[in-house]
Amino acid sequence: MEDKRKRALLIHTVGTEAQRIFYTLPDTGDSYAAALQALKTFFIPKLTEENKFPQRAQLVGKVVAVAAGAVGAVALAPVALGAIGFTSGGVAAGSFAAGMMSSAAAANGGGVAAGSLVAALQSAGAAGLSTSASAAVAAVGGTVGAGVTSAVGWLRSRFSDQK
């Protein structure tokens, strides 16, 4: 295929948004190679030593945040269940849990359905979290820890650039 045709096909296949950008770029040339290089230069991010290799402290910080989130979530889940009224002695009167139980019972004709959210939370409040529930809570906690770390890193980068 001749070079001009390859260049035209490249410009056609990148789509209208990329075409609009392409026609504003300097040094697009008349050849396929020049056009491809102009697109690569614009669209491929520049790698610096800083973003190629994350700092060891950054990696350690992320691992610590994920672990802390996982452990913290598992440790605090029983506290949170007790605080909303799912206790080892049953549902606490006048609590948020009592309201949930009342709503669930009204929706099910007077009884709480086995396997429902209220039943599962009361079971966890009375007997503690099962192994699978602990794993699920740890996964959510770890994800939250990772998200917080990423958000803090993003905020730090946004505000450290402004001088």
Overview features:
single chain; 163 residues; mainly alpha; 2 domains; two-stranded antiparallel ribbon; 71% helix; elongated
Quick overview of this protein structure:
The chain is an all-alpha fold. The radius of gyration is 28 Å and the shape is elongated.
The main sheet orders its strands as 1-2
Uncertain runs are: none
**Average residue pLDDT:** 85
Main sheet overview: 2 strands, antiparallel
The ordered H/E elements are HHHHHEEHHH
Percent strand: under 5%
Number of domains: 2
Total beta-strand segments: 2
Distance between the termini: 52 Å
Described by the principal axes of the CA atoms, the overall outline is: elongated
Count of DSSP-assigned helices: 8
Helical proportion? over 70%
Characterization of this structure:
The structure is a single chain. By secondary structure, this protein is an all-alpha fold. It folds into 2 domains: 3-44, no CATH class; 52-160, no CATH class. Helices cover 71% and strands 2% of the residues. It has helices at 3-13, 16-22, 32-43, 49-52, 56-84, 96-107, 117-127, 131-160; strands at 86-87, 90-91. The two termini are 52 Å apart. The model has no long low-confidence stretch (mean pLDDT 85).
